[in-house]
Write the structure tokens for this entry.
Amino acid sequence: PGSVLVTSGTGSGKTECFLFPILSSLLDEVTATHEALTGVQAIMLYPLNALIESQRERLSAWTGPFGGRVRYCLYNGDLPRAARDSDRRRTPEQVIDREQLRSSPPPILVTNTTMLEYMLVRAEDRPIIQSSKGKLRWIVLDEAHSFVGAAAAEIALLLRRVMIAFSVRPEDVRFIATSATIGSGDTVKQELREFLADIAGVAEDQVFVVEGS
């Protein structure tokens, strides 16, 4: 699988660059099995809760028509422990509480690095990982230009722990990073390629850089 770093201006469609392929892949699987998908296949990491919440409308619009067969969860500190069944039925495409997240993890998990750290060590979150072993295929890093110095080292180590926990190899996962425009030209593209390869732990020839214009 190839990995990609998308660098383009604000509001130019970076999210759609990875969201469409992920949804297309999940829908292919649903079409083949005719069953709702369980187990995390895509982890989308955002640095701020506001950015996590901003994905709700977009994800509901795209996953709603599938009647709960392709689901997502916005997993941050605000996710309640439990919800009523009537509330769950109102939005079948979205997992709205932690009990449901742990009993039936959705294929798309939108979260932040702090919650992902907790998920790897908390006993109550262990069912999420157990149900997802071997299934993780996509990891998205939004605002990748914010990962510099110690922050870059921390996310690199976190991703390696995620690989181990989910029983997958880095070379079998598609890593997608998005970044604001930070320059252009072959030298910058090569530096961006090296950056994602180092953070993800994959070979440089697996990484492609897409520039917006």
Q: What stands out?
A: Residues 14-33 form the longest helix (20 residues). The mean pLDDT is 93.
